[in-house]
Specification:
Nitroreductase/BluB; 36% helix; five-stranded mixed β-sheet; Nitroreductase-like; four-stranded antiparallel β-sheet; 10 helices; binds flavin mononucleotide; 336 residues; alpha+beta
Length: 336
């Protein structure tokens, strides 16, 4: 028999701390986990930490905001699953740009089964950089993923054959620009040699050799140990996540939309890999804007496909301990 307190009786601050800890499963650029949470008696605050080892990769903090946005969406869904509603204020303090969100006005609601299902998806979602299988992605699934993005105020455009070929050219241009940038190479070296810290990318999740893909994947500068097999991901679908504005609060929303898309894809058995090199380089980001033909600003490219069912995928990428990212000191009783 379980001795856990039923969710309905658990104090709000426990639910907030648990939601913040659950958000630790979110994806982040180079697994940097740039989010820090503070639990208050009636609020939850999300801050970004700007790691100096991402200065060349992400000078504007766009990828950091996407990553924190993904964590924000995870926390929102976790609260909904526990039967709480919250008001989300994004970038609530113009004098404190690192305070990305504040969740307030928590009220009781019915626990939401769809949100519960997505919380389960958080535990299994991961980045699988192997080529996808030959099996096509069902059109209905693409529709569901695009709807999940739209519900977060962004759009997802699936690229046709011509646009995929253009994206391939843009991605290889971005890769050459990045390969020539020594500071950027140093940053990659840092994030791929973080064993034991709970951050960064261990060799087990990086391909042992460059996978055969239509659009070049990120070159992490060193081979990993993940076997990729001979497949070519011809059946992959590429989507361009975009929106109306190109400002820090829209980047946060882009991250929320990325999380919504990725968790929905996970529920449908579809693998997602973000390709952010093309938006890290200003010139190639501008070219992507052309692909959108005036519809909006590009945030991120994602590859969708069915993972190779015949071989085991990569293991989970490590995470920091919850205590390192969730500050509960404001709600802890002095003798606790
Ligand atoms: C904003 C953002 C950009 C990313 N860019 C890339 C990328 O260009 N190539 C790649 O292989 N993975 C990329 N990723 C995936 C992360 O490396 C991955 O989420 C992180 O290492 C944690 O691993 P997990 O997704 O398996 O939990 C990106 C993730 C985010 C959130």
């Amino acid at each position: 028999m379980s001795h856990e307190t039923p969710a309905a009786e658990r104090p709000l601050t426990t639910a907030l701390a648990e939601a913040a800890a659950t958000a630790g499963h979110a994806p982040s650029v180079h697994n940097s986990q740039p989010w820090r949470w503070r639990v208050l008696p009636d609020a939850l605050e999300l801050r970004v930490v700007r790691d100096p080892k991402l200065t060349a990769t992400d000078p504007e903090g766009r990828l950091l905001a996407y990553s924190c946005g993904a964590a924000l969406h995870h926390a929102r869904v976790a609260l909904t699953a526990e039967g709480w509603t919250a008001v989300v204020e994004r970038m609530p303090d113009p004098t404190d740009r690192d305070l990305l969100a504040r969740l307030t006005g928590m009220a009781r609601a019915e626990a939401d089964p769809e949100a519960m299902r997505l919380v389960q998806c958080m535990q299994v979602r991961h980045t699988d950089r192997r080529p996808v299988s030959e099996e096509p992605v069902p059109t209905a699934a693409l529709g569901e993923i695009a709807s999940a993005v739209a519900a977060e105020g962004c759009q997802l455009q699936f690229l046709d054959r011509d646009n995929v070929l253009e994206l391939a050219a843009v991605a290889s241009r971005a890769a050459s620009v990045e390969a020539e940038d020594s500071q950027l190479r140093e940053e990659l070296e840092y994030w791929t040699s973080r064993a034991g810290t709970g951050t960064g990318l261990p060799p087990e999740v990086l391909p042992a050799e460059a996978p055969q893909t239509t659009v070049p994947a990120r070159d992490f500068g060193r081979p990993g140990t993940l076997p990729v097999g001979p497949g070519h991901d011809r059946a992959a679908v590429y989507g361009l996540l975009y929106g109306d504005e190109d400002e820090p609060d829209s980047w946060l929303r882009a991250g929320e939309a990325l999380s919504a898309a990725w968790l929905t894809a996970t529920r449908l058995g579809i693998s997602v890999v973000p390709l952010s090199g093309v938006v890290e380089v200003a010139g190639t980001r501008q070219t992507l804007r052309g692909l959108l033909a005036g519809l909006g600003y590009p945030y991120l490219v994602i590859r969708l496909g069915l993972a190779d069912p015949a071989h085991a995928g990569p293991p989970h990428t490590p995470r920091m301990e919850a205590a390192q990212v969730v500050d509960t000191s404001a709600v802890r009783s002095p003798d606790a």
